[in-house]
Amino acid sequence: MSQQQWTAVDDYITGILIGADPVLDAAQAAADAAGLPQIAVSAPQGRQLQILAETLGARRILEVGTLGGYSAIWMARALPADGRLVTLEIDPRHAEVARGNLHHAGFAAIAEVRLGPAADSLRQLADDGAEPFDLVFVDADKASNPLYFAWALRLTRPGSLIVVDNTVRDGAVADAGSADPSVVGVRRLHEAVAAEPRVSATTVQTVGAKGYDGFTLIRVRS
Ligand code: SAH
Ligand code: DHB
Ligand code: MG
Protein backbone atom coordinates (compact mmCIF):
# COMPACT_ATOMS: atom_id res chain seq x y z
CA MET A 1 0.00 0.00 0.00
CA SER A 2 1.36 3.37 -0.99
CA GLN A 3 0.58 7.04 -0.59
CA GLN A 4 -0.15 7.11 -4.32
CA GLN A 5 -2.87 4.51 -3.86
CA TRP A 6 -4.39 6.24 -0.82
CA THR A 7 -4.55 9.48 -2.80
CA ALA A 8 -6.11 7.72 -5.81
CA VAL A 9 -8.83 6.28 -3.57
CA ASP A 10 -9.50 9.68 -1.97
CA ASP A 11 -9.78 11.13 -5.49
CA TYR A 12 -12.25 8.38 -6.38
CA ILE A 13 -14.33 8.96 -3.22
CA THR A 14 -14.32 12.71 -3.79
CA GLY A 15 -15.26 12.34 -7.45
CA ILE A 16 -18.15 9.97 -6.95
CA LEU A 17 -19.60 11.01 -3.57
CA ILE A 18 -18.75 14.70 -3.28
CA GLY A 19 -18.32 16.07 -6.79
CA ALA A 20 -17.63 19.58 -7.93
CA ASP A 21 -17.72 22.16 -5.14
CA PRO A 22 -16.89 25.63 -6.44
CA VAL A 23 -17.24 27.26 -3.00
CA LEU A 24 -14.71 24.94 -1.36
CA ASP A 25 -12.43 25.08 -4.41
CA ALA A 26 -12.42 28.88 -4.12
CA ALA A 27 -11.69 28.68 -0.41
CA GLN A 28 -8.76 26.34 -1.04
CA ALA A 29 -7.49 28.58 -3.87
CA ALA A 30 -7.62 31.65 -1.62
CA ALA A 31 -5.71 29.80 1.11
CA ASP A 32 -3.09 28.67 -1.42
CA ALA A 33 -2.78 32.16 -2.92
CA ALA A 34 -2.15 33.57 0.57
CA GLY A 35 0.56 30.97 1.14
CA LEU A 36 -1.21 29.12 3.95
CA PRO A 37 0.12 25.61 4.68
CA GLN A 38 -1.78 22.81 2.91
CA ILE A 39 -2.90 21.02 6.04
CA ALA A 40 -6.69 21.39 5.90
CA VAL A 41 -8.80 18.25 6.20
CA SER A 42 -9.46 16.42 2.93
CA ALA A 43 -12.86 16.67 1.23
CA PRO A 44 -13.93 13.19 2.45
CA GLN A 45 -12.92 14.16 5.99
CA GLY A 46 -14.78 17.46 5.66
CA ARG A 47 -17.92 15.62 4.56
CA GLN A 48 -17.47 13.32 7.56
CA LEU A 49 -17.44 16.32 9.91
CA GLN A 50 -20.58 17.65 8.21
CA ILE A 51 -22.34 14.28 8.61
CA LEU A 52 -21.35 14.04 12.28
CA ALA A 53 -22.71 17.55 12.91
CA GLU A 54 -25.94 16.74 11.05
CA THR A 55 -26.35 13.47 12.94
CA LEU A 56 -25.96 15.33 16.24
CA GLY A 57 -28.49 17.94 15.10
CA ALA A 58 -25.79 20.44 16.03
CA ARG A 59 -26.85 24.05 16.49
CA ARG A 60 -23.57 25.27 18.00
CA ILE A 61 -20.12 24.21 16.80
CA LEU A 62 -16.71 25.19 18.18
CA GLU A 63 -13.48 24.72 16.22
CA VAL A 64 -9.96 25.08 17.62
CA GLY A 65 -7.59 25.83 14.70
CA THR A 66 -9.22 27.62 11.74
CA LEU A 67 -6.49 27.88 9.08
CA GLY A 68 -8.33 29.18 5.98
CA GLY A 69 -11.78 28.07 7.12
CA TYR A 70 -12.00 24.93 4.97
CA SER A 71 -13.19 22.55 7.70
CA ALA A 72 -15.30 25.38 9.16
CA ILE A 73 -17.24 25.69 5.89
CA TRP A 74 -17.93 21.93 5.87
CA MET A 75 -19.26 22.05 9.44
CA ALA A 76 -21.21 25.28 8.92
CA ARG A 77 -23.13 23.51 6.14
CA ALA A 78 -24.67 21.29 8.82
CA LEU A 79 -26.04 24.22 10.83
CA PRO A 80 -29.55 25.65 10.73
CA ALA A 81 -29.95 29.28 9.62
CA ASP A 82 -29.87 30.43 13.26
CA GLY A 83 -26.94 28.16 14.21
CA ARG A 84 -23.53 29.34 15.39
CA LEU A 85 -19.96 28.36 14.58
CA VAL A 86 -17.08 29.84 16.56
CA THR A 87 -13.59 29.06 15.29
CA LEU A 88 -10.34 29.99 17.07
CA GLU A 89 -7.14 30.99 15.28
CA ILE A 90 -3.83 32.43 16.49
CA ASP A 91 -2.48 33.65 13.15
CA PRO A 92 -3.96 36.95 11.88
CA ARG A 93 -3.26 36.04 8.25
CA HIS A 94 -5.07 32.74 8.58
CA ALA A 95 -7.98 34.43 10.34
CA GLU A 96 -8.28 37.05 7.59
CA VAL A 97 -8.34 34.42 4.82
CA ALA A 98 -10.87 32.36 6.80
CA ARG A 99 -13.19 35.34 7.31
CA GLY A 100 -13.14 36.00 3.56
CA ASN A 101 -13.81 32.35 2.76
CA LEU A 102 -16.65 32.02 5.28
CA HIS A 103 -18.19 35.23 3.93
CA HIS A 104 -17.94 34.02 0.34
CA ALA A 105 -19.50 30.70 1.38
CA GLY A 106 -22.51 32.54 2.80
CA PHE A 107 -21.76 31.99 6.50
CA ALA A 108 -20.80 35.50 7.59
CA ALA A 109 -23.91 35.75 9.79
CA ILE A 110 -23.41 32.48 11.68
CA ALA A 111 -19.63 31.97 11.71
CA GLU A 112 -17.19 33.94 13.83
CA VAL A 113 -13.38 33.72 13.67
CA ARG A 114 -11.83 34.67 17.01
CA LEU A 115 -8.22 35.78 16.76
CA GLY A 116 -5.76 34.89 19.51
CA PRO A 117 -4.23 31.94 21.33
CA ALA A 118 -6.98 29.32 21.62
CA ALA A 119 -6.27 28.88 25.34
CA ASP A 120 -7.24 32.54 25.90
CA SER A 121 -10.30 32.39 23.65
CA LEU A 122 -11.51 29.20 25.35
CA ARG A 123 -11.15 30.81 28.78
CA GLN A 124 -13.04 33.86 27.49
CA LEU A 125 -15.89 31.68 26.17
CA ALA A 126 -16.17 29.97 29.57
CA ASP A 127 -16.00 33.29 31.45
CA ASP A 128 -18.74 34.68 29.20
CA GLY A 129 -20.97 31.73 30.11
CA ALA A 130 -21.24 30.59 26.49
CA GLU A 131 -24.08 28.17 25.79
CA PRO A 132 -22.78 24.61 25.46
CA PHE A 133 -21.48 23.51 22.08
CA ASP A 134 -22.89 20.37 20.45
CA LEU A 135 -19.70 19.61 18.50
CA VAL A 136 -16.10 20.64 19.13
CA PHE A 137 -13.42 20.03 16.48
CA VAL A 138 -9.90 20.28 17.88
CA ASP A 139 -7.29 20.78 15.14
CA ALA A 140 -4.62 23.27 16.28
CA ASP A 141 -1.21 22.88 17.98
CA LYS A 142 -1.08 19.22 18.95
CA ALA A 143 1.02 19.74 22.10
CA SER A 144 -1.94 21.59 23.65
CA ASN A 145 -4.47 18.80 22.98
CA PRO A 146 -4.85 17.89 26.69
CA LEU A 147 -5.63 21.52 27.51
CA TYR A 148 -8.10 21.84 24.63
CA PHE A 149 -9.81 18.63 25.73
CA ALA A 150 -10.26 20.03 29.24
CA TRP A 151 -11.79 23.24 27.88
CA ALA A 152 -13.95 21.33 25.40
CA LEU A 153 -15.41 19.33 28.30
CA ARG A 154 -16.27 22.55 30.11
CA LEU A 155 -17.88 24.04 27.02
CA THR A 156 -20.07 21.05 26.08
CA ARG A 157 -23.01 19.13 27.59
CA PRO A 158 -23.94 15.47 27.98
CA GLY A 159 -24.51 14.18 24.45
CA SER A 160 -21.97 16.50 22.80
CA LEU A 161 -19.18 15.17 20.61
CA ILE A 162 -15.53 16.23 20.67
CA VAL A 163 -13.46 15.29 17.60
CA VAL A 164 -9.67 15.63 17.71
CA ASP A 165 -7.74 15.53 14.41
CA ASN A 166 -4.31 14.04 13.75
CA THR A 167 -4.14 11.70 16.72
CA VAL A 168 -2.25 8.81 15.08
CA ARG A 169 0.57 10.69 13.36
CA ASP A 170 2.04 7.99 11.11
CA GLY A 171 1.66 5.56 13.98
CA ALA A 172 3.91 7.55 16.30
CA VAL A 173 1.09 7.67 18.88
CA ALA A 174 2.09 4.12 19.87
CA ASP A 175 5.70 5.17 20.55
CA ALA A 176 5.98 5.72 24.30
CA GLY A 177 9.57 6.94 23.84
CA SER A 178 8.81 9.72 21.37
CA ALA A 179 10.15 13.16 22.28
CA ASP A 180 8.15 14.91 19.54
CA PRO A 181 5.95 17.45 21.40
CA SER A 182 3.03 16.72 19.03
CA VAL A 183 3.24 12.99 19.73
CA VAL A 184 3.57 13.62 23.46
CA GLY A 185 0.51 15.90 23.25
CA VAL A 186 -1.52 13.23 21.48
CA ARG A 187 -0.47 10.56 24.01
CA ARG A 188 -1.28 12.88 26.96
CA LEU A 189 -4.66 13.48 25.31
CA HIS A 190 -5.38 9.75 25.27
CA GLU A 191 -4.34 9.50 28.94
CA ALA A 192 -6.60 12.41 29.92
CA VAL A 193 -9.52 10.92 28.00
CA ALA A 194 -8.93 7.50 29.57
CA ALA A 195 -8.96 9.05 33.06
CA GLU A 196 -12.16 11.02 32.47
CA PRO A 197 -15.29 9.14 33.58
CA ARG A 198 -17.62 11.61 31.85
CA VAL A 199 -16.66 10.47 28.33
CA SER A 200 -16.38 7.39 26.16
CA ALA A 201 -13.95 7.53 23.27
CA THR A 202 -12.18 5.79 20.46
CA THR A 203 -9.45 6.62 17.97
CA VAL A 204 -9.95 5.68 14.33
CA GLN A 205 -6.87 5.17 12.14
CA THR A 206 -7.11 6.62 8.63
CA VAL A 207 -5.20 6.65 5.36
CA GLY A 208 -5.86 8.98 2.44
CA ALA A 209 -4.54 11.99 0.58
CA LYS A 210 -3.22 13.28 3.92
CA GLY A 211 -1.18 10.15 4.65
CA TYR A 212 -1.54 7.82 7.62
CA ASP A 213 -3.18 9.49 10.58
CA GLY A 214 -6.42 9.29 12.53
CA PHE A 215 -8.95 11.09 14.63
CA THR A 216 -10.32 10.64 18.12
CA LEU A 217 -14.08 10.65 18.78
CA ILE A 218 -15.02 11.61 22.33
CA ARG A 219 -18.66 11.38 23.32
CA VAL A 220 -19.68 13.27 26.45
CA ARG A 221 -21.90 10.78 28.26
CA SER A 222 -25.61 11.49 28.48
N1 SAH B 1 -9.08 22.99 10.83
C1 SAH B 1 -8.37 23.49 9.64
C2 SAH B 1 -6.88 23.21 9.73
C3 SAH B 1 -6.24 23.80 10.95
S1 SAH B 1 -4.46 23.79 10.82
C4 SAH B 1 -8.94 22.80 8.40
O1 SAH B 1 -8.99 21.56 8.40
O2 SAH B 1 -9.30 23.48 7.44
C5 SAH B 1 -4.04 24.33 12.44
C6 SAH B 1 -4.34 25.81 12.71
O3 SAH B 1 -4.20 26.01 14.10
C7 SAH B 1 -3.37 26.76 12.00
O4 SAH B 1 -4.07 27.75 11.29
C8 SAH B 1 -2.61 27.40 13.16
O5 SAH B 1 -2.24 28.76 12.95
C9 SAH B 1 -3.61 27.28 14.30
N2 SAH B 1 -3.01 27.32 15.64
C10 SAH B 1 -1.80 26.83 16.03
N3 SAH B 1 -1.59 27.08 17.32
C11 SAH B 1 -2.70 27.73 17.78
C12 SAH B 1 -3.07 28.27 19.04
N4 SAH B 1 -2.28 28.18 20.12
N5 SAH B 1 -4.26 28.89 19.13
C13 SAH B 1 -5.09 28.98 18.06
N6 SAH B 1 -4.78 28.49 16.86
C14 SAH B 1 -3.60 27.88 16.70
C1 DHB C 1 -0.48 19.27 10.32
C2 DHB C 1 -1.55 19.77 11.05
C3 DHB C 1 -2.83 19.30 10.81
O1 DHB C 1 -3.90 19.75 11.50
C4 DHB C 1 -3.04 18.34 9.83
O2 DHB C 1 -4.31 17.89 9.62
C5 DHB C 1 -1.98 17.84 9.11
C6 DHB C 1 -0.69 18.32 9.34
C7 DHB C 1 0.88 19.76 10.57
O3 DHB C 1 1.03 20.63 11.44
O4 DHB C 1 1.78 19.31 9.89
MG1 MG D 1 -5.63 18.55 11.20
SSE string: HHHEHEHEHEHEHEE
Q: Provide the structure class.
A: alpha/beta
Sheet with most strands: 7 strands, mixed
Number of strands: 7
Rg over CA atoms:
17 Å
Uncertain runs: none
N-end to C-end Cα span: 40 Å
Number of helices, counting only DSSP H or I runs of 4 residues or more: 8
**What is the global morphology?**
globular
Strand order of the largest sheet: 3-2-1-4-5-7-6
Q: In percent, how much strand structure appears in the residues?
A: 15-25%
**Ligands present:** S-adenosyl-L-homocysteine, 3,4-dihydroxybenzoic acid, magnesium ion
Give a quick set of tags describing it.
8 helices; about 220 residues; 7 strands; binds 3,4-dihydroxybenzoic acid; alpha/beta; binds magnesium ion; binds S-adenosyl-L-homocysteine
Structure description:
43% of the residues lie in helices and 23% in strands. α7 (145-154) links the parallel β4 (133-138) and β5. It has helices at 3-18, 22-33, 43-56, 70-76, 92-104, 118-127, 145-154, 181-194, and strands spanning 60-64, 84-89, 111-115, 133-138, 156-165, 199-208, 211-220. α2 packs antiparallel against α5 (92-104) and α6 packs parallel to α7. It is an alpha/beta fold and 222 residues long. The structure holds S-adenosyl-L-homocysteine, 3,4-dihydroxybenzoic acid and magnesium ion.
